[in-house]
């Protein structure tokens, strides 16, 4: 995309230099826009006469951007932006402009706000540098997350966002020469599926937590020179400059820094790392140190640090964080090795690091408790570099590395890993032109999903955690978030989706035991699982506002089994994998249905089935206020009831497809087991008043919350539960939801399907669109969005409601930004949110591209106006489709022949005419 517009917002004007610049811009064929204060407008009156130059009144940023981009119909990516106000830089960068240039003498402020470049004076602006950047760097930058200054407050967030991973291992990209501390640095490493459950005495009781193990740190590098008494460390260093970059295309993270010691010695430090996508056991690490203004003997130690505990989440620090014992450390010439074993799950962890061989003559092993360490000594001239390449192997007794461990040069492994990433990007990439920012952030979501579960996962026994392999939040547990996550994999890597569902299958016995313990039949899928498949939801949780440990009743969220069943059915639709449906998938479905058949209670007085004492997705309503905690849950959660009815309705279709072997194995009798299924499906209870579905029985009687009051009192009201509890109140009293609950029904089912399901249940609702609008408008007002999942659901529904496209874009932006900006104030530094990330991608597929795959391909694109071109791939029933959407055209290309039809508005066309596998449609 070429640059066509220059936009200026300047608070101070240096007239002569500015005029020179403007003249040079207007000589070429560009449009120039100024946003100036009223006084300056007079000053620039003369430019108004020039057709190509517009001086506009500057009130505020959103007013400005609206005036500029909407009214002038400009695509942000065709504009470069220049400002002397850092806050404007951030704003315009997020609008998607191609280049942001800051003018000022404090580059940090501008880089903090994501300027691409900073110059100290307007006289230094050279147009050719801007063109050059756009021509030669913009495409590359759209693959990168870049931080050009260090920010103590944001460091942990950036470590998370630049994590390297391959589905098996995730390593937070912390500075290699700094160990974990209380609030700034946290070099955690996690292996998919590796947990350890240990007790802690807290609030007078012994509680067990099954934690995601932070394994020994194989990335520790420490260094000093000559007789330095201590290693160079943030405490004795000043950072002169730095660049922290994640290249998402190649999966490589780099840091470049110039460090200055208290005594003035300067060193240039470079660190590169990646997690092998080609071989999940290999990670590459490369360090280069160059003394800039002195010479001396470098003493650099390369370690695998075994003094590691789980310490990443401040709220959990009172819990036992000791999860492994070091069993053995070795160091020899060019390699170090550390073996450890988890204290309760008894998994052996084996870490080896090989270094470039030619350095062996400079190395000596160091004896250190719990740490495998090699010390390298080398005298360096001024500006002479020392480079240490490290090949790291990570394996466990569950997933061993097969092959010979040896040193492989950093570049050689990186090349292989890059090739594997390139294949992945070829499948998953979503290309957006017209909005550079959305492009970068969309790739960021895709990147982190693949770090969390990749094609490597088909070789291991691991599910997908709610928070990636990026941190310890939620202890690496697996929740219902798969409902949001798996659709991404269905469309790109169905085999990965299957392996994630197989993780559930292998734990079906635990779910059966759980049902039995609760006096129910079939399988009761626990709300949170880790490695064994047992219920791992904590019994008490910490409220940072009240500083109290409160009971946690969230385990009552039985709806998690609906998401497992929904995914199996959805997976089948995408793949027609009969084998999975007739065996593992089918077995899970039957056991889930058996559970629900034993959970529902028939009430003669209303001739309805009811579901008592469960929680819906809205975690604020844990129980009825008058009930003790031992009686958690609420009755007839509409989401649960309606989805259970949906599930029983689907049973007719998939029952015959399930193999008789499976039915025999689990003693499933088509007569006895299913005797009341039809009845349940038609008679589940739902309460609907004035076209609004009641979230649960008694919800309509609760008090309204005074939002204004709380917004004035607290900066962030997302976690109203914590706020109310800290004020000795409870959300149980109010119509206030943490996240979409009733609205989840509209997220999963099309409004027409939902309405006909309700009709089948005997409820008189009509007009699906109005029904959606009424429920949406009712619940959005009563939701605090304390979970990022809530954003994607609301955005998704806005696409279905006429004339709400501006709101749709606004909510999509909240969701897209949520991890990047850590909008929940400190949660992303503890791990990404896979649910919202995948939810964003689904939103692009389903709403912006408007593609719904089924018996026909339904098209209803609704992309943001400034996205000029949107292209993506979808795999459906073994055929790869590429879609390209512009303002007036959709092009679909399939990689093989098929009989698919395409529906756009009311028109259905054959995909294939004669021998074509390309389909083009003009949008009206
Ligand atoms: C949400 C749940 C979600 C969990 C893990 C919670 O904050 O309320 O719906 O499953 O986070 O992402």
TrEMBL record:
Gene Ontology biological process terms from the UniProt entry: carbohydrate metabolic process
GO molecular function, one term: glycosyltransferase activity
Protein name: Glycoside hydrolase family 65 protein
Alphabetized PANTHER family for the sequence: GLYCOSYL HYDROLASE-RELATED, PROTEIN-GLUCOSYLGALACTOSYLHYDROXYLYSINE GLUCOSIDASE
Domain Glycoside hydrolase family 65 central catalytic: 443-841
Classification lineage: Bacteria, Pseudomonadati, Bacteroidota, Flavobacteriia, Flavobacteriales
Organism whose genome encodes this protein: Mesohalobacter halotolerans
Domain Glycoside hydrolase family 65 C-terminal, residue spans: 854-907
Matches recorded under Gene3D superfamilies: 1.50.10.10, Glycoside hydrolase, family 65, N-terminal domain, Maltose phosphorylase, domain 3
Keywords from the named record: Hydrolase
Domain Glycoside hydrolase family 65 N-terminal: 147-398
Residue runs in coiled coils: none
């Amino acid at each position: 995309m070429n640059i066509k517009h220059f936009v200026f917002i300047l608070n101070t004007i240096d007239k002569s230099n500015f005029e020179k610049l403007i003249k040079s811009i207007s000589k070429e064929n560009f449009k120039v826009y100024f946003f100036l204060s009223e006084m300056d407008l007079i000053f620039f009156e003369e430019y108004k006469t020039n057709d190509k130059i517009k001086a506009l009144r500057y009130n505020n940023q959103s007013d400005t951007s609206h005036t500029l981009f909407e009214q002038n119909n400009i695509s942000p990516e065709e504009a470069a932006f220049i400002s002397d106000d850092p806050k404007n830089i951030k704003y315009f960068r997020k609008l998607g402009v191609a280049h942001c240039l800051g003018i000022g003498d404090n580059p940090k402020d501008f880089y903090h706000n994501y300027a691409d470049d900073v110059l100290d004076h307007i006289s230094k602006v050279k147009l050719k540098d801007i063109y050059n950047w756009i021509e030669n760097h913009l495409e590359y930058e759209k693959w990168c997350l870049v931080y050009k200054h260090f920010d103590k407050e944001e460091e942990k967030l950036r470590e998370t966002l630049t994590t390297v991973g391959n589905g098996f291992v995730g390593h937070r990209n912390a500075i290699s020469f700094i160990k974990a501390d209380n609030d700034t640095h946290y070099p955690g490493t996690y292996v998919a599926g590796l947990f350890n459950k240990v007790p802690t005495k807290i609030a007078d009781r012994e509680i067990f937590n099954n934690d995601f193990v932070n394994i020994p740190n194989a990335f520790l590098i420490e260094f000093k020179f000559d007789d330095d008494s201590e290693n160079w460390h943030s405490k004795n260093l000043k950072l002169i400059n730095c660049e922290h970059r994640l290249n998402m295309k190649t999966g490589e993270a780099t840091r470049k820094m110039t460090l200055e010691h208290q005594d003035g010695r300067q060193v240039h430090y470079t660190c590169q790392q990646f997690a092998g996508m080609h071989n999940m056991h290999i990670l590459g690490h490369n360090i280069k140190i160059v003394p800039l203004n002195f010479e001396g003997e470098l003493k650099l130690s390369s370690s695998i640090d075994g003094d590691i505990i789980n310490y990443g989440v401040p709220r959990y620090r009172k819990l036992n964080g000791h999860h492994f014992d070091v069993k053995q450390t070795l160091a020899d010439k060019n390699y170090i090795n550390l073996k450890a074993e988890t204290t309760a799950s008894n998994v052996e962890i084996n870490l080896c690091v090989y270094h470039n061989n030619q350095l062996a003559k400079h190395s000596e092993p160091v004896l250190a408790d719990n740490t495998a360490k090699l010390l390298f000594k080398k005298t360096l001239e001024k500006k002479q570099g020392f480079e240490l390449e490290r090949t790291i192997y990570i394996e466990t007794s569950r997933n061993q590395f097969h092959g010979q461990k040896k040193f492989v040069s950093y570049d050689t492994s990186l090349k292989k890993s890059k090739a594997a990433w390139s294949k992945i990007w070829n499948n998953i990439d979503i290309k957006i032109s017209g909005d550079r920012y959305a492009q970068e952030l969309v790739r960021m979501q895709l990147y982190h999903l693949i770090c969390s579960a990749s094609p490597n996962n088909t070789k291991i026994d691991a599910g997908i955690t709610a928070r990636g392999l990026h941190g310890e939040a939620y202890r690496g547990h697996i929740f219902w978030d798969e409902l949001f996550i798996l659709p991404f994999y269905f469309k790109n890597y169905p085999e990965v989706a299957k392996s994630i569902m197989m993780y559930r299958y292998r734990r079906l016995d635990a779910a059966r035991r759980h049902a039995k313990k609760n006096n129910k039949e079939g399988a009761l899928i626990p709300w949170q699982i880790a490695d064994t498949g047992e219920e791992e939801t904590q019994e008490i949780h910490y409220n940072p506002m009240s500083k109290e440990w409160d009971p946690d009743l969230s385990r009552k969220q039985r709806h998690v089994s609906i998401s497992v069943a929904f995914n199996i059915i959805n997976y089948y639709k995408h793949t027609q994998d009969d084998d999975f449906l007739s065996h593992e998938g089918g077995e899970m479905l039957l056991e889930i249905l058996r559970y629900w058949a034993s959970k529902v209670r028939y009430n003669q007085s209303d001739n309805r089935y009811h579901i008592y004492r469960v929680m819906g997705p809205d975690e604020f309503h844990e129980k009825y206020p008058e009930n003790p905690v031992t009686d958690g849950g609420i009755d007839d959660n509409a989401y649960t009831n309606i989805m259970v009815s949906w599930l029983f309705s689907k049973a007719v279709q998939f029952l015959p497809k399930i193999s008789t072997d499976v039915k025999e194995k689990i003693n499933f009798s088509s007569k006895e087991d299913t005797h009341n299924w039809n009845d349940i499906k038609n008679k589940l209870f739902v309460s609907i008043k004035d076209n609004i579905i009641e979230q649960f029985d008694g919800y309509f009687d609760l008090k309204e919350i005074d939002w204004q009051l709380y917004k004035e009192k607290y900066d962030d009201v997302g976690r109203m539960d914590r706020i109310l509890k800290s004020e000795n109140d409870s959300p149980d009293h109010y119509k206030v939801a943490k996240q979409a609950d009733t609205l989840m029904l509209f997220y999963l089912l099309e409004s027409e399907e939902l309405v006909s399901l309700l009709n089948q249940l005997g409820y008189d609702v009509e007009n699906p669109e109005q029904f959606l609008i009424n429920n949406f408008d009712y619940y959005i007002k009563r939701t605090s969005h304390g979970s990022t999942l809530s954003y994607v659901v609301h955005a998704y529904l806005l696409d279905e409601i006429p004339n709400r496209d501006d709101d749709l874009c606004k909510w999509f932006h909240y969701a897209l930004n949520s991890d990047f900006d850590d909008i929940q104030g400190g949660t992303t530094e503890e791990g990404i949110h896979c649910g919202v990330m995948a939810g964003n991608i689904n939103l692009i597929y389903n709403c912006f591209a408007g593609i719904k795959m089924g018996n026909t391909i339904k098209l209803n694109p609704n992309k943001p106006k400034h996205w000029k071109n949107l292209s993506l791939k979808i795999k459906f029933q073994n055929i790869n489709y590429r879609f390209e959407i512009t303002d007036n055209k959709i092009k679909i290309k399939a990689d093989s022949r098929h009989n698919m039809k395409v529906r756009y508005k009311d028109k259905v066309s054959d995909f294939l005419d004669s021998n074509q596998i390309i389909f083009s449609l003009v949008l009206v």
